[in-house]
Amino acid sequence: MSTATPTAVTPLSTQDAEILLTAARRAAEAAGATVSVTVLDAGGHLLAFRRDDRAVLVSGETSTRKAYTALQLNAPTADLVDLVKPDGPFHSLATALDRPLLFIAGGLPVHRDGRLVGAIGVGGGAPEQDHAFATAAVTALA
Predict the structure, then answer these.
(1) Which residues partner with 111 through β-bridges?
(2) Distance between CA atoms of residues 60 and 50, nearest Å
(3) Are 36 and 49 contacting, i.e. CB atoms less than 8 angstroms apart?
(4) Residue 6 DSSP class
(5) Distance CA 29, CA 5 (A)
(6) Which residue(s) pair with 118 in the sheet?
């Protein structure tokens, strides 16, 4: 029997959230995209949100749902798209849980020391762009 105490992991801070938000927005600006960015902590609570002035209004909702989905399933939303297609194993997941899940690329879990500490979601660009912007943000935090 192990007597080792699990190592505490520093939670995602508002400063971390600002780093994520800023890095995602810079990546989007460099690509000429206008987006919304949402950062959630490990409990699903909003840490940061920003919608570019010219971003489509729905991008605020999609960025939040992408972050929530990545957090709840601890997986990039880009990796989940095929799983919810009509022939996929999680086909009914999107409607069965009555939760704000969205299976479109652009959401990423955020890990620290191998533990889930939050998530980021980006909406407003093409799905592949949103995924790239979120990836740039997570890389900047690391």
Answers:
(1) 116
(2) 8
(3) yes
(4) P
(5) 44
(6) 41, 110
Strand, coil or helix: 80: coil
Task: State how far the Cα of 30 lies from the Cα of 32, in Å rounded to an integer.
Answer: 6
Cβ(48)–Cβ(18) below 8 Å:
yes
Sequence-distant (≥ 6) Cβ neighbours of residue 75 within 8 angstroms: 109
How far is Cα 67 from Cα 46, in angstroms, rounded to an integer? Answer: 10
Q: How far apart are CA 46 and CA 119, in angstroms?
A: 10
Q: What is the pLDDT of residues 57-106, one digit of tens each?
A: 999 999 999 999 999 999 999 998 888 888 888 877 777 777 788 999 99
Backbone angles phi, psi at 60, to 5 degrees: -65, -45
Distance between CA 20 and CA 46 in Å, rounded?
13
Q: pLDDT at residue 2 above 60?
A: no
